[in-house]
Orotidine 5'-phosphate decarboxylase
Amino acid sequence: KKPQTYKERASTCTNPLVQQLYKIMNLKKSNLALSVDLQNSQQILQTVDKLGPHLCIVKTHVDIIEDFSPQFTTSLRDLAAKHNFLIFEDRKFGDIGKTVKSQYEGGIYKISSWADIVNAHPVPGDGVIKGLKEAATGTNKGCLLVAEMSSAGSLAKSDYTKGAIKMAEDHKDFVIGFICQSRLIDDYNFVHMTPGVKLSEGGDSLGQQYKTPEEAILKRGADVIIVGSGILATDDPVQAAIQYKEAGYKAYEESLKN
Ligand code: UP6
C-alpha cells in the first residue's frame, strides 16, 4: 500500500481523535511525543510550555509526580490548548475491567477527565478495554494497546502481539493504536507509537534499548516517536526537541518515497 501523508491520513481515518492527531502532525510538522518523566509539577509545566511548539503529544506518568494537585492537570490542559498537542497518560492499565474503570476515572488523578489518550496491557483480555471504554463514554478519548515493549526480555511478542492486534481490531471505536517496536497493521487508523528512541543507540542499566528516530520510522514503521531522556537529559532540551522533531519529520518524508 502506498504511504499516505499526514494530511491524507487525517482525511481518510475514521476515528476523530486519530484525525485530530494527524492534523496536528501535519500542521506542526512533528511526529514527536515528549515523555515528560519529571517529578515536579512546575518543572513539567515549564518544560512543556517551552517544548510544546515542537510536540504532537505530551506523555505523562502522573503517578511519579511528588506534588500532584488537580491544578496541575488543569494547567497541562491549558498548555495543550495553547500549543495544540494531545495528552497521553502512560498508565499502562493491566487489570480486570471493573478495576481499570475506577483507576481511569477515580482516585486522586481522575485520568479520564484530562488525558486524551491512555494505554493498556492486553494481558487481562478485552475486559480491560471494555472497562476503560465505559469510563470514557461520550468523550473524544482513545486507548493504545501495549503490543510490544522496548525493554530487554519483553514477553510481549509473537502470539501475544497477534492477540493485541486482534483485540484492537475488535474495538476500533476506542483502540486508536499501539505501543510497539514494529509495524503491526497496514492501517493508519491504528497509530503506531514507538518508545526507546534516542539519537545515539544503546540502552540504560535497567533494560531500556534505544533505536534512532530513522530506525524507528523507516525500518520499524513508527508513526510517532516517543522520546524522554534523549531530550530531557541534555543541557538544552529545546534544541534537543527541535533535533528530534526534524530527524523524525525527515524520516517521515523519506518514508513517503517508498
Ligand atoms: N516506555 C518505554 N518502553 C515501552 C513502553 N513505554 O520506554 O515499551 C515508556 C517509559 C518511559 C518512556 O515508561 O516513560 O517510554 C521512555 O523514556 P526514555 O526515552 O527516557 O527511555
DSSP finds ten helices and ten strands in the chain. The pocket of 6-AZA uridine 5'-monophosphate is lined by residues 35, 37, 61, 90, 149-151, 179, 195-196, 208, 226-230 (CB under 6 Å). The beta strands are 32-35, 57-60, 86-93, 117-120, 142-146, 175-179, 191-194, 202-203, 209-210, 224-227. The radius of gyration is 17 Å.
